[in-house]
Amino acid sequence: ALELQTRTLGAEHPGLGTTLPLLAIEISNQGRVEEADEVFRRAEALVLRAADPGEYPRYLAYLGLHAANRRDYGRALTIARDTIQRRRALIEQTGGGIPASLDTRGAAAAIFGSAVFLQGELAHALMFASAMAQRTGDLGGAEAFAVEARRIVEQTPGLPAWWRPQAWAQLGGVLALRGDFRGAERLLAGAVNERTRIFGPTWQTAVPLKDLARAQADEGRCEDALGN
I need a surface site. Which of 44, 125, 158, 220 has the fewest CB within 10 A? Predict the structure, then answer.
């Protein structure tokens, strides 16, 4: 894709800034840190010239994932906070509050660039920030981020169905660490049930099921944990 864009638009066209972060995070996921750093640097220079103000927060989201891959969770959290701030500003500029309803006719066209899309990006940034705050030991911050993410995905129509259990699982994991095992179990069991309904007995269901078992074990309910 990058090669086609380069041939068509030229190597310095801001349009390449959409593809370069995707390439960079794939390189990062393979552990090729220095190579990923270079691609991210190239991407930033182009993204800063992009006409779409949403491009830079999306770039930051991938840069945060790269920091997490490097186990630099403090930097990842800092980037996540910046991403959240920028996405809130975009929502305010566009008047993109949580919509009361979504006309399903032409839904794909309605979602991208709309209030739904902007809210979805904010929810993802909040869930990532929650995970990074959890990694750095800031459980209060992790809970606050996760609570807001849950509110957004539950109140915004038109988002993918699997985002809801993802938000439940994130908040449930934080509550378990804070010792609220009843609240954690309710959310994690809900995530397991919803993911089972959507995906069936696959790894997508196994992830919250593992977290549920860990919460039960931490509570001292070892038989229930082993059953899961």
Answer: 220
The whole-number average pLDDT for the span 177-199 is 93
Q: How far is CA 194 from the centre of its chain?
A: 18
Asked if 158 contacts 111 with a C-beta cutoff of 8 angstroms, the reply is: yes
Mean of the per-residue pLDDT values of the chain: 88
pLDDT number for residue 110: 42
Q: Which pLDDT tens digit goes with each residue over 13-36?
A: 888 888 899 999 999 999 999 999
Task: Note the pTM of the prediction, 2 decimals.
Answer: 0.85
- Measured CA to CA, the distance from residue 190 to residue 167 in angstroms comes to 11
- The distance in angstroms from the start CA to the end CA of the chain is 43
Nearest alpha-carbon partner for 61 in 41, 81, 46, 45 = 81
- pLDDT surpassing 50 at residue 109: no
Write out pLDDT tens, residues 133-158. 999 999 999 999 999 999 999 999 88
Picking from 7, 22, 102, 11, the residue whose alpha carbon sits closest to that of residue 55 is: 22
User: What is the SS3 string spanning 3-43?
Assistant: HHHHHHHCCCCHHHHCCHHHHHHHHHHCCCHHHHHHHHHHH
Residues of 10-35 as b/e, b for ≥16 C-beta within 10 angstroms? eeeebbbbbbbbebbbebbeeeeeee
- Where does residue 182 rank: exposed (0-12), middle (13-18), buried (19+ CB within 10 A)? exposed
Question: 148 near 128, Cβ under 8 Å?
Answer: no
Q: Residue-wise over 79-93: b if at least 16 C-beta within 10 A, else e?
A: bbbbbbebbeebbee
